[in-house]
Amino acid sequence: MYLLITLFGRMTILGVTIFFALQFYKTKKSFVKLFEGNKPIVLGVFGGLFGVLGTILGLPYKGAIINYRDIGVIVASLYGGLPASLLSSSIASSHRFFLGGPSGFACAVGTLCAGLFSTSLRGWYLRSKEKVILGSLISAFSELVHLFVAYFLIIPRSLAADIVLNALAPMVITNAFGVALILALTKFTEQAVKDASSKVFSTTLAVAEDAVKTIEEPSTANIQRFAEKLSTILGVEKLIIDFDERTSRQESNCPVRACIALKSRGRTIGRLMVLNNTELQEEQTLMLREIAKFIEMVVVAARAVKESILAREAQMRDFASKLGPHFLFNTLASIRYLIRNDDENAVKMVDELSELLRYYFKNKESLVTLSEELRMIEYYLSIMKLRYGDSLVYEIDIPEDLKDQQVPTMILQPIVENAVEYGARDGKISVKVKVSSKDSELILRVSDKGMGMKSAQKGIGMTLVEARLRNLYGDRARVEYKNKDGLTVTITIPMEGAHDKSRYIRRRAISS
User: Would the pTM count as exceeding 0.90?
Assistant: First the structure.
């Protein structure tokens, strides 16, 4: 009983020490990466060193050491598989062997066998939803394997029986408890890191649209409003966003707790300052750094938009006119929700968003095949389907013989996005994309079942669509709006070979 209480007490103290060490965000993040990163070598070294510590903190008994060396080996085996098991058990076993004693060799072999036994149950463990309970059970049986091996290898047999009998309860109980404690701390830490990251992400999304408005129109009033909103979210006395280094502290008595340089293309474009009566907490600092990075990205995006508007051809490829920040923000928010509730669909949404972005950024031509264009539209609608669920129904109808026809890249996306955003009626969104041809003209039609659209409601997306069509086809392209049982937008363009290529070539020469 003395051995059990003493060993259990030391294990508790070690567990409390680890718990307090994990209260720092950086320590938490490193701990989570250790178990999530699929790094068997690192896990093996960690498990081996933890095993050495378990031996050092053990209790001597008749030349043997009653210990919790196997905790590190078992945890490394469950997460890192056979490579981690062999490495961790080799480190811990070698250390025990060289300490000598009548049980030196036996316990070294026993630790190796405990690690291999744990590895054999790894698949079962990884599939389990109750990892803490199952891990402690695996540890208990692994210790029985360890002691069984030790009993047959320790000489004389009477000493073996004595050591195993007195070590059975302390080692099985403390090792099972220790493994359960490590696994529980891992689970708790993983959730804490996810919650902190989710909070940072949510905060970034909450200020995203205001950031765009503020930076695109950086008046003193807008900057001040944006800074006040950020200071409320961060829970600080005052926050200053300064793009021209002329903003003053306005006689504030609060000391500066953080000052982050805002950079674009390697050049400092401003600064982000936090004034507060108390030191910033670690979570506040983390959120502030992420928001600073986001502001830098928005500055680059806003300047790119302004530069692209100066050239009509650049306007056709501009990211904002293709995708729109609202779509990105909403999609990212949906991904964040799905990550915590539906991993499979979150992965699907990320894959489809990646395909869309790859299409937007890599496509340098103004014309693409209709099949390519509609494939991207289907990706977009699939993403929206994951977001809206059964509320969204869509259909894409294209004749086989028209799939190779050339159309302006991203010409349909603003219209389809508009249909999804404003085409709801009675809680349902219905979008139909139909392609047809007539008299050497290609007809692209997008319909929804919403409340229709007044001419004064035409947004920037539709305005850009019309401007692009005029630039490429002149008066031979038409855009028509029909309000009947919803809104139908019809684009009519010349079929392949009928548009004015000379104008397109001339514009490219001028823009280059």
Answer: no
